[in-house]
Specification:
- The chain is mainly alpha-helical.
- The radius of gyration is 17 Å and the shape is globular.
- It has ten helices and two strands, in the order ααββαααααααα.
- Helix 9 runs antiparallel to helix 10.
- A two-stranded antiparallel ribbon has the order 1-2.
- It has one domain: Ankyrin repeat-containing domain (Serine Threonine Protein Phosphatase 5, Tetratricopeptide repeat, Alpha Horseshoe), CATH 1.25.40.20.
- The N terminus is likely disordered.
- InterPro entries: Ankyrin_rpt, Ankyrin_rpt-contain_sf.
- Pfam families: Ank_2 (PF12796).
- One of its GO terms (molecular function) is RNA binding.
């Protein structure tokens, strides 16, 4: 698949009718758009990573059978390799909620670096996104996940470490509160 204007223009709001027809007639909605060798995205990832947090295009794509967990490539090295990681990295909270309601896997990531949506929210300081990832996933978000790549300090990074490294105090508190709730829930389940 070559770099197709139709996929990049999904976030262009100038002509909604053409955009809608393009999506509905596109039988290869999950195909990759290989504009550059190192990047390979599908239409849903383009829409999820838009500069504007507008979920209408995402909903239209999902209604037309776009894969909510679609991953471009096992060898993909970028951080935003799923629709959910793309939306989390951009701070698109409305899109994050839409993807989670459509059963996006909050812990799925296959980039070589192993970044989760929770980690990306912490890296870039997106508090509302982190809150949505924790609450909308019904506690299934892995708050303890580690990156697969060893970093300068010879340690893999976690969401908590990323939030602390970037000085996002509110996110640190959010993570600690959520981790405490998970521990309390685990202890109560063990007692029964």
């Amino acid at each position: 698949v070559l770099c197709t204007p139709s996929k990049r223009s999904l976030t262009n709001k100038k002509n909604k009718k053409i955009r809608s027809l393009t999506i509905k007639k596109n039988k290869k909605i999950n195909d990759l758009d290989k504009c550059k060798e190192e990047k390979a995205y599908n239409a849903l990832i383009y829409a999820a990573s838009a500069q504007v947090d507008d979920d209408r295009i995402v909903i239209l794509l999902l209604d037309n059978k776009a894969d909510v967990n679609g991953i471009p490539s096992v060898h993909h090295v970028h951080l935003s390799n799923t629709p959910l990681t793309a939306a989390a990295a951009k701070g698109n909270d409305k899109i994050v909620k839409t993807l989670l309601r459509r059963r996006a896997d909050v812990n799925r990531c296959k980039s070589q670096k192993g970044w989760t949506p929770v980690m990306l929210a912490c890296e870039f300081g997106h508090g509302p996104v982190l809150q949505s990832l924790i609450k909308e996933s019904d506690g299934s978000a892995d708050l303890y996940a580690k990156t697969t790549r060893i970093h300068r300090d010879d340690e893999p990074w976690t969401a908590l470490k990323l939030a602390a490294r970037n000085g996002h105090e509110a996110l640190i508190q959010m993570l600690l509160d959520a981790m405490g709730e998970q521990l309390v829930g685990d202890n109560e389940a063990m007692r029964q």
